[in-house]
Amino acid sequence: MPEPPSSRKPARILVVDDQMSMAEMIADGLADRGYDATPMASSRDAAALLEREPLDLLVTDLRMPRIDGLGLLAVSRKADPSRPVIVMTAYSAVDTAIESIRQGAYHYMTKPFKVEELVLFVERALGESKLRREAVALRRALRSRFGLENLVGESAAMREVGDLVERVADASVPVLITGETGTGKGLVARAIHAQGARAEAPFVSVNCASLPENLLESELFGHVKGAFTGATANRVGLLEEADGGTLFLDEIGEMAPALQAKLLHVLESGTVRAVGSNKERAVDARILAATHRDLRERVTKGEFREDLLYRLDVVSIALPPLRHRRDDLPALIEHFLASAKAKHPRSPVESIAPEALERMLDHRWPGNVRELEHVMERAVLLGRSREIGVADLPATVVEGSAAPNGTAFSGDVVPLREVQRRYVAWAFERFGGRKVLTAEKLGIDFKTLSRWLDSGGESNEGR
Predict the structure, then answer these.
(1) Could you tell me the CATH superfamily of domain 12-138?
(2) Across residues 315-337, what is the average pLDDT?
(3) Average pLDDT over residues 270-294
(4) Where is each Sigma-54 factor interaction domain found (predicted)?
């Protein structure tokens, strides 16, 4: 029987039996095998110990005066739901032992039994408990690294994004994430996965614009040996790798029509067929898709399947560009400063000079949050003093801040349509990114506002 490694702190086990000789015998047997076992005859004292001590496992008799085994089981589960409990019973009380399993006991043992038999179940129980604790810790770490906390911003638009992420996280429906390049679509996809029930399962990501059609098909669906030149072995596709978890399709608008049809089949049937194979396999992968394109416009042009759009757009989350959530800039700057400092601890940079901060607040950030992150990392990496000054900022930020908030004009005359577009964008910022309120104040309908916000050169910035 395997013993706990000597380098590992021995598991603490409480053994409770109203016959102290029995409790001591079992505890001695466990101690001989490397465990820290404590015998106890008073179930009342045992209950108090379970409530205040971080014990790893409880072994308890069922029939005891004052507090019986089921009572101790309840106390233990309330104090630490992950702590396994093994109950001991006489043959005549097997029905009660079975009831203990229903109430959460790990296993029951009928007296008399050998210590070796108990050790077997102790080892199994502790192993499974360790896995559960590690899974909880992993999920907590995932949420810390990729959860909602990483969606920095308290503007109305970002609060709405955070609310949507929370509401859809536990569902299995597809989500379409839209927004300009650099707004954080991948971060939102990660947050949906990390917040949901699939957090411990794989999160698989692929950029549909980064691979040619034939390679993307093989990447997504897999292939069998001999399916094409160079296919020297079977390969599992990303859809199967994401089984039980999430598949994130970034830049879905760039996917070729033939692959769109195959993806639609997966969404409708829940099955995937590898390239060159005649067999289909069931997959349970949640699909999250992102694009900076207007997919409805691409549908009109025949570049994107309308039926696939309906399948993907069960829930949509629109990320606002950074210029429409300027209230979030100070928090984002502070966040990326801390992040860059953590990556480059030898940098002397500690803060930002007021003049540099003013230039950053005035910049229009066509590259959105990604541009801001890169600017902060560059300034921290190259900075030679405690403060980031104007000279530490790239020319694009310094020179681009001459027209604060994108509302000022240069000496050139601009078309009236551009004036109107800028005014609508300014009003949208003024009302904290709330489209309904902005449309109401401007006296236009919601669709007209959306069209103006996305019109002109602004709709293509940062793409």
Answers:
(1) Response regulator (3.40.50.2300)
(2) 91
(3) 93
(4) 151-381
Neighbours of 105 (CB within 10 A): 24
Q: How confident is the model over 226-245, as a mean pLDDT?
A: 87
CATH topology of domain 147-318: Rossmann fold (3.40.50)
The bridge status of strand 85-89 relative to strand 57-61 is parallel
Residues 6+ apart with CB under 8 A from 363: 397, 400, 401
DSSP string, 17-79: -SSHHHHHHHHHHHHHTT-EEEEES-HHHHHHHHHHS--SEEEEES--SSS-HHHHHHHHHHH
pLDDT of residue 407: 45
**Structural contact between residues 390 and 359, judged by C-beta atoms closer than 8 angstroms:** yes
* Contact assessment for residue 17 and residue 26, using Cβ atoms and an 8 Å cutoff: yes
Query: 331 is written with which tokens?
Result: 């928090």
The band of 92, judged by pLDDT with boundaries at 50, 70 and 90, is low
CA distances from 337 to 278, 295, 357, 370, 374 (A): 53, 35, 12, 13, 10
pTM: 0.63
For 247, phi then psi, to 5°, come to: -110, 120
Residue spans per domain, the chain = 12-138, 147-318, 322-406, 416-460
Name which CATH class applies to 322-406: mainly alpha
Q: Which residue would you say has higher pLDDT here, 152 or 242?
A: 242
pLDDT, tens digit, 9 for 90 and up, residues 369-419: 999 999 999 999 999 999 999 999 999 888 765 444 444 444 456 576 767
